[in-house]
Write a structure and sequence with these properties.
There is one protein chain. The protein has helices at about 10-20, 65-85, 90-95, 135-150; strands at about 1-5, 30-35, 45-50, 55-60, 110, 115-120. By secondary structure, it is α+β, with helices and mostly antiparallel strands. Strands 1-2-3-4-6-5 form a six-stranded mixed beta sheet, with helices on one face. About 15% of the residues are buried.
């Protein structure tokens, strides 16, 4: 396995990443791991296996102090979205996240240096960090509108509050 990163390239990092990926239900061994390079909260990596790619993220537990509650929320929302996308004739595997479960069946793997989650990598998509044109802004807004529309009948009462008062603008 090869690790291409900006920091810590030694055997310790290689062993740590190998142990982490081995903690998930992958059908193949990781051949290469690269930092994903986007995001401000979690540490993200692209894991390449022989026939598939995945996104591995170390969850920032300073921000998300209940990572298991957060992952359950994401699971509930994702299951709802997958159902809606399929009903509309879309491809749920491309239209939303697909989890790779940990060996213990949970959505997270606890490692020495933190808690990790893994998703299937979705090829041929673009992540827009900052819009550069009105067309990009329109497409981003449209995608967000579709996300909201698909969740319009989702019951939020089943979600766990993972960051207390996050949406409380009075505080």
């Amino acid at each position: 396995m090869e690790y291409l990163g900006r920091k810590r390239k030694g055997k310790k990092m290689m062993d740590s990443l190998r142990t982490i990926t081995d903690g998930f239900n992958l059908t193949e061994k990781a051949e290469q791991i690269k930092p994903l390079g986007i995001g401000n909260i979690n540490s993200s990596f692209v894991v390449k296996c022989k026939s598939a790619k995945y996104v591995l993220q170390r969850i920032n537990t300073d921000v998300f102090q209940d990572p298991y509650g957060m992952m359950n929320n994401i699971r509930l929302v994702t299951e709802h979205l997958k159902k809606k996308i399929a009903e509309e004739g879309g491809d749920p595997e491309r239209g939303t996240l697909s989890f790779v479960t940990a060996k213990d069946g949970s959505l997270c793997h606890k490692a020495e240096d933190g808690i990790y989650r893994m998703y299937s990598f979705i090829d041929d998509v673009t992540t827009i960090q900052n819009t550069k044109s009105s067309d990009e802004a329109y497409r981003t807004a449209y995608a967000f509108g579709e996300f909201q529309r698909r969740l319009s009948d989702f019951n939020p009462d089943c979600l766990t509050e993972t960051i207390p008062d996050f949406h409380n603008t009075q505080k």
